[in-house]
């Protein structure tokens, strides 16, 4: 791996150009209007994997968007690393908040990134981070440095809940067999504070519909006399948290693991400035469950948030209407041991129970996933830790993340292997938001660090 | 007035034919494509007023559609009645729900109307009801029965908010001077239950904006740790009503008039079937302020309803986002004595006060109007009541409406006179909806009843 730095230096402009080409295709899996673009992106990934030295690259059809698979098996006696990533992206709205078009990538310098960042939807999540692996693979195969077997599985439905991945994994257990799974779809604490995500939250995502009268009504003639679905929905949502911001769904906390004081003290050592956090979000105060710190609230504690709400007249001006229906999209982040299907059922039962007379309530589960924890004494964790030491000169900090990658627990269950989350993004990358970006320094540092993981993992697991 | 019945009998076919001719012109004020039709309608009204015996009939230009004015001053010492109506109509869409073309009137019998109804846009609102006054005037002048002075003011912008009427009224206070204003643009309880609308609710309409973090955030990474504007907005909206559905804004009820038990008992006499009401709306229960009946809730009590709400991801599928902003349109229906500008200020102050730390709140007032009451001991009310007794054989029921007709309080303020709302329409007439219609019985009954109002008002107010 000794010449990785010089290889990157020689090829970095091409690495950036290739990523930019990939970012130009709007592979928005949530919106069927972009179907052709999502499929085109799958094809670009197939070609990239072939160029990086993978064999048997194929576009595996599913009932939704395809999964791109490729592999390089050099010796059946050597360990196998399975790389997972996704080529689909979040919708870019609200478009008017972007400073440049989301699918017309531009490079600009920022205070945090004097080396420049690429602004585009998917720059970090996950096209940029996924493509680091493709380029690391290119280095290892072209320089004859690949120390073990590799398999790639890149899907196109991560942003819509990986709905068809589970069937694919179950049907291809042998093909996907591996010793460790490697994913870059998370972040690290700071450019000079490498970290490895060891825990992920689970997710339950539902959509609710509240129906009052059978048609929109004139608010003068009916106002005050019938249940207004928007007022009722607001009241129902408000009641899901108590005055201490605990979630009120019966049974919701039953399986939540309570960390020991020692563990919480360990967590509290991670560098964190509440002032900087508030300043970066332009808020005068944080908000959340009583008795927990900000970092605990967004990692070891389950939460409930409304992700979208709509109903009635939302256009310009005024319309005095009582809407017939109101809707919300609600998601719960779960911690390990909370089963997402159980929680979805608890939510559904509770939400239906609290509906007042005069309205009808429907709860439609969207999707979900289990939480996950990687032990820091596993081979994979140790190999990743050494790789970061090699390229950052620092031991990375193990960190629980508040996000969910539901497939990680699916992989453990179906493939019986642990996942290592080597993220190179930063909190400030604005993933899922307008002006998403990815630092060029981070992109290249990822490409540099990944081959060392292969080397150390092969050594340690022998 | 003794020969009014026989006069109507002799002329009823002509009365119906004239109304049908008027209904054939699509005077849709909201759609500029119909400008020529709206102007043609103003001209038809001018000719009708002239034929009915009015003097000095003129088309008064405004910045929008003209106001048709006409008068018959028989003696300066006699009282003057000002008739207001409008010749413009609502747009007819959705067209595909009409059983016959909206501007090609047809007469059909229905269960409720064995005498036949006219189906057409504007049949009831307000061409049919306004034209009753023109035909009543024709009777009185042709038979030399006009007991007092009359002024007509028929506008063409009622369905788009009477935007130019206020300026016209302010500029023509002397010309419009009167002792009572008479309007037929409301309904009555049933064909055999005459009623007079004595109260209208006022309105305060605001838009609110709640801002949390300065950008949309990933709900996994930030969920539970920052104030979510949608959850916060829901909580704030929920808190605007207490457990008895009283509005919690401090001072909101200070000026609300509490009706006496006797008055409430009088109101309760109006025939009303809760079962039929629930069935027509397909709801299993009504909802509203504790301690009041449905008819009280939508007439004598002030209310607060959300007319629209939006924020976050509202498209297809799922997006795990914490929105930066959430919005709602909120309107309050007010009762007489509640000043809409005071209430708007109370709302604004309260809503800003209840915002938790971690969010910023903006309240943008849209518009409003005052409520209105006609005392049942006023000369105008007494005259109207006697007129109904004369022609229906029953004392009409005074009834508060939940809707707002802002021009009525404008008239009181600028012209210093009370308005009598003698409506002959029915709830089932489907005004503003497809298949609007007006019963021929109601049309002719209106023409029969109106002259008696003139007679009794002249006698009582002398």
Automatic annotation (TrEMBL), chains A, B:
Gene3D superfamilies: 3.30.70.360, Zn peptidases (3.40.630.10). Its EC number is 3.4.13.-. It comes from the Bacteria. One of its GO terms (molecular function) is dipeptidase activity. It is an enzyme of class 3 (hydrolase). Keywords: Dipeptidase, Hydrolase, Metal-binding, Protease. InterPro entries: Bact_exopeptidase_dim_dom, Cyt/Met_Dipeptidase, Peptidase_M20, Peptidase_M20_dimer. Residues 199-358 form the Peptidase M20 dimerisation domain. PANTHER family: BETA-ALA-HIS DIPEPTIDASE, SUCCINYL-DIAMINOPIMELATE DESUCCINYLASE. NCBIfam families: PRK07907.1 (NF005914), PRK08201.1 (NF006053), PRK09104.1 (NF006579). This is Dipeptidase. It comes from Winogradskyella bathintestinalis.
